[in-house]
Amino acid sequence: MTMTPPRQPALSVLTVPAFKDNYLWLVHDGTHAAVVDPGDAAPVRAALAAHNLRLTAILLTHHHADHIGGVPALLSEWAVPVFGPKNDGIDLVTDPLVQGDRITVPGIDMTLDVLDVPGHTLGHIAYVRRDDVRRDDVRRDGVRRDGVRPDDHAPWLFCGDTLFGAGCGRLFEGTPAQMAASLAQLAELPDETLVYCAHEYTLSNLAFAQAVDGANAALAARVEADGASRAAGQPTIPSTIALEKATNPFLRTTSAPIVRSLVAAGRVAEGAAPLEVFTALRAWKNTF
Questions:
Q1: Which of 7, 105, 193, 224 lies 20 to 30 angstroms, CA to CA, from 151?
Q2: 199 part of the active site
Q3: For this structure, is 120 an active site residue?
Q4: Which of 29, 137, 161, 213 is catalytic?
């Protein structure tokens, strides 16, 4: 008799709000969980208890305190590995990672690819779970269908503070060229990839996007949809790579309307190269 192997439990992602606008992510199979960027231990503990989960791994993207601050307290309760960037100065990392590494997260059926995405910090990394894709879940204009949700079908991206909803991270350590290259790498992921960034900055980012790309119909639709989500007390994250490419000005540095806006504002000259456009956008957003 041929035995059918047991089906692995489906994975889900729990949104764990922290501080003013951080999101900590708990990936779980109903029994075991891994946490991404636990800046605060208390909400992680509460979520684990509420869902009767056991922590089996910690995943870090970069060294800022609001992403790693809860690690010591969690390790005092759970003896688990700490995955994180090799080159970002985090002493608590037990399993250092660089571009091209692939890890299997202990306790849950999840394999992650590691990407180097410097810019926000010099050693920042991102994690990609590549899985079965439902291509009908995202319309061609990048607007999400009602069926898109965290589940075991779409690829996942945990990108820390590199890519945000309609924005990108500040350049605290890296250069514009590094951040632009990091974002370009993320933009090459499948359109259906769910983007789990670490902050709820979407509405303020959308306000800037409208200032530089006001005629964008996909952007207008996103403003309405994400505004309604926040008004209802719901997160705007995860977004999708398709949605970001359609509406995020930092992924649209070759867009003629955006270039015209920068030229009109006196921030670039006619014919500016994409890196010049990105640099000008980031500088403008810093003071917007």
A1: 224
A2: yes
A3: yes
A4: 161
Q: Which of 28, 32, 63, 67 is catalytic?
A: 67
Task: Say whether 63 is catalytic.
Answer: no
Residue 62 a catalytic site member: yes
Query: What DSSP line would sit under the chain, residue for residue?
Result: -PPPPPPPPPPEEEEEEETTTEEEEEEESSSEEEEE--S-HHHHHHHHHHTT-EEEEEE-S---HHHHTTHHHHHTT----EEEETTS--TT-SEEE-TT-EEE-TTSS-EEEEEE--SSSTT-EEEEE-----GGGB-TTSPBPTT--SSSSS-EEEEETSEETTEE---SSS-HHHHHHHHHHHHTS-TT-EEEESB--HHHHHHHHHHH-TT-HHHHHHHHHHHHHHHTT-----EEHHHHHHH-GGG-TT-HHHHHHHHHTTSS-TT--HHHHHHHHHHHHHT-
Residue 32 annotated as catalytic: no
- Whether 91 is a known active-site residue: answer no
